[in-house]
UniProtKB/TrEMBL annotation:
The keyword Hydrolase applies. Residues 92-384 form the Beta-lactamase-related domain. PANTHER family: BETA-LACTAMASE-RELATED, BETA-LACTAMASE-RELATED DOMAIN-CONTAINING PROTEIN. Keywords: Hydrolase. This is Class C beta-lactamase-related serine hydrolase. The keyword Transport does not apply. InterPro entries: Beta-lactam-related (IPR001466), Beta-lactam/transpept-like (IPR012338), Diverse_Enzym_Activities (IPR050789). One of its GO terms (molecular function) is hydrolase activity. The lineage of its organism: Bacteria, Pseudomonadati, Pseudomonadota, Gammaproteobacteria, Moraxellales. Pfam families: Beta-lactamase.
Length: 401
């Protein structure tokens, strides 16, 4: 482990000063706010500038997966599922079973297009934290974040551990409640500002860590900063070297706050749909790919343990979240820190507790069922109000039980 050391301690953030969204260029910020409201569809990637490439397979672009017909589902059942997804603005629906692509459905999208995975990136960051621990760059999850964030050494945030950030139990100020001083939602400068490292490091705590679960984008952004300081690499370089190239993925990109600036590691990684299947298969294969152990199986197991439970001392805990990973279907308004209008709707629970998933805004989902060797991607626009995120995956799992 190499704790991050900062030379200029005079700029250490003091929590008493309070949080403010740092925006060095107000005109650029205003342009981003207005421009972000016109992004149609969400799968369009050209608007997201500047960016840094995440290099993929160094031996050349991987071939697209061949389609086979092995899955025990009738043609009519597939058509029913496809129509349901089409009615809910799905752009890509891919099913990988036993390592084989057994179904694909594209609408107004092509296999080589890149899409915004939104908060699915959070799970990649957790994978990278595990890899950093495997590499000895971070001693473990109970290390204080302040070892890499000296800006936190002189206030209550010095007690926050890396595990608190991973499990969304940091006690940091909510990013979806209006700031009393600025009347700005703290998530807005994180999403659209051009000084996001400074912004993230200035967010104060409002409660001791480990007491309650609250979904907060700042937790993952701070994990990205820790990764960079521990490794000396940019987020894109670290993701490329330790995950994207070893998985033989196509090149993608991360969205930066400014040219040569900080990547938005809480969300907005652009990649091709099939490459997400490779990520899901990594969980199925217990961290290995083509004979190479990319991340330890023990870390993947740790990611899947429910962390926000009363047994762990978390108030109002629900056993639905691990390390940046969703473990149960959830409904509107039931998750602290997720506004009801952003949540993905589920009217029924998953039929199988072994299922878990990555989720991004507007219904970007990667479902993984290791016991069935099943990986399923749904990508697209915001589903309609009667969307049930668990219906499709329950249909697939039911025929495998």
């Amino acid at each position: 482990m190499r704790p991050y050391m900062k030379d200029n301690t005079n700029q250490t953030n003091r929590q008493a000063k309070g949080f403010m969204p740092y925006l060095s260029n107000q005109v650029q910020y205003a342009q981003r706010v207005l421009g972000s409201q016109r992004i149609q569809p969400i799968t369009q990637s050209n608007w997201y500038q500047p960016r840094e490439t995440v290099l993929g397979n160094p031996a050349g672009q991987p071939a697209f997966l061949p389609l086979t017909e092995q899955f025990p589902l009738s043609t009519q059942d597939w058509q029913n599922i496809d129509q349901y997804l089409l009615n809910h603005q799905t752009r890509a629906f891919l099913v990988l079973w036993k390592g084989q692509l057994v179904h694909q459905f594209y609408h107004q999208f092509k296999p080589h297009y890149q899409f915004n995975s939104m908060s699915m990136l959070k799970t990649l960051v957790a994978l990278l934290i595990g890899i950093a621990i495997d590499q000895g760059l971070i001693a473990g999850v109970h290390v204080k974040a302040a070892e890499f964030l000296p800006e936190w050494q002189h206030d209550a945030r010095r007690d926050i551990t890396i595990e608190h950030l991973l499990s969304m139990q940091s006690g940091l100020k909510s990013d979806v409640k209006l700031d009393a001083r600025t009347w700005v939602l703290p998530v807005i400068p994180l999403y659209l500002g051009n000084e996001i490292e400074r912004t993230a490091l200035a967010l104060p705590s409002v409660a001791p860590p480990g007491q309650y679960f609250e979904y907060n984008n700042y937790n993952t952004q701070l994990l990205g900063i820790i990764l960079q300081r521990a490794s000396g690499l940019t987020a894109a370089q670290f993701l490329s070297k330790y995950l994207w190239q070893p998985l033989h993925c196509h090149s993608g990109f991360l969205w930066l706050d400014k040219p040569h600036g900080q990547a938005r590691t809480f969300g907005a990684f652009f990649a091709q749909p099939e490459d997400w299947l490779r990520v899901g298969q990594l969980f199925v294969n217990r961290g290995s790919f083509q004979g190479q152990q990319i991340v330890s199986a023990q870390w993947l197991e740790q990611m899947q343990i429910p962390r926000n439970t009363p047994a762990r001392g978390v108030m109002d805990g629900r056993a639905d979240y691990g390390y940046q990973l969703w473990l149960k279907a959830h409904d509107y308004g039931l998750i602290r820190g997720i506004p009801w209008f952003e949540a993905t709707h589920a009217t029924t629970a998953f039929h199988d507790d072994a299922l878990f998933y990555l989720e991004g805004l507007r219904g970007q989902c990667l479902f993984i069922h290791p016991h069935h060797d099943l990986v399923v991607l749904r990508m697209g626009e915001r589903p309609k109000k009667d969307w049930d995120m668990s219906w499709m995956i329950n249909q697939l799992c039911a025929v495998l039980n």
